Input
Amino acid sequence: MRDIVILGSTGSIGVQALEVIAANPELFRVVGLSAGGNNLTLLAKQVRDFNVPIVGVGSGAQELKGALSGVKVIDGAQASEQLASLTCDLVLNAITGSIGLAPTLAALASGNKVALANKESLVAGGDLVMAYGSEKIIPVDSEHSALFQAMSAGRASDVSKLILTASGGPFRDRQDLSQVKLADALAHPTWSMGPVVTINSATLVNKGLEIIEAHYLFDIAYSKIEAVIHPQSIVHSLVEFKDGSTLAQASPPDMKGPIAYALAYPNRVGGAMAPINWNGKQSWDFEPIDEKRFPAVQLARRAGALGSSVAAIYNAANEVAVAAFMKEEIAFTAIVDTIEKVVDKLSASAPSRIRDISDVSAIEQDARIYAREVLKKG
Output
């Protein structure tokens, strides 16, 4: 029986993790949950359904206390950090955005292992996170879970290349992106995800973030990390070894697979997802990314190669631009344009290394301020 703490329990990953746990009560026990507070009704139901003794919430604590008798409620901006520090077997960080970095560090500092779905933890603070050792991190993103599994077939020194796959999002075959509307960007053809991640997938910023994440997780040079379009989303990533062999991890596009793998690692959970139907006809396509239409990937590679502080700038600028697009204040193409302008402006003066989380906060603050200036100028 493993004791699990879930941060971001009302989001897509958190909800699916609880479904995996509910299907396997003999394997897992939920000892803590946290959420931002946007869906208190769901959070209260999760606490009752799983008999969770302690819950953290960013806002709405009084309402939650009224709905949950006998449950300890922690409120405030540091609620998830406190939950992450609870004694447990594993902390699943399913928070979206760079606000997930502090809870990741809190969990690691407390000696907990982290099932990491919050890619921004590594993008914004990769040096800080990996200082605790790669053995403390189990990736949850489907791409990084695939790499993690495929790399177990050989030694890290034998790896010549990592290849991440991308569905291509809703605009893979759309040439003119100038008139994209919010509803268009939220209509992902394959995955069901939260709105921010879905928009990041539409711009392919998500793939850029994942390249940076892979660099830190697997200690691989950016020059050895590639990304390709794979519309079927069956092959989640590939590892090429120096002898010319390439190993791929394949499964239907269902996040319960990588979630269950992270929760139970090194074991596997029976029936976590349906397998591929090998009796049916299969056709898998792969094609290069059109970097002219989707410049976010190459921009992320450039930002990452310049250093961890520039990767943090990239991520913070994207968060501001995506928020503006979701309010329908800017055009879809302005998202990556804004990121590039912020990276170009601030990279020259960015610190060569990040010493602590206060450095990350300062870098992100500068990036957000300049990103808002760029957006204000149109």
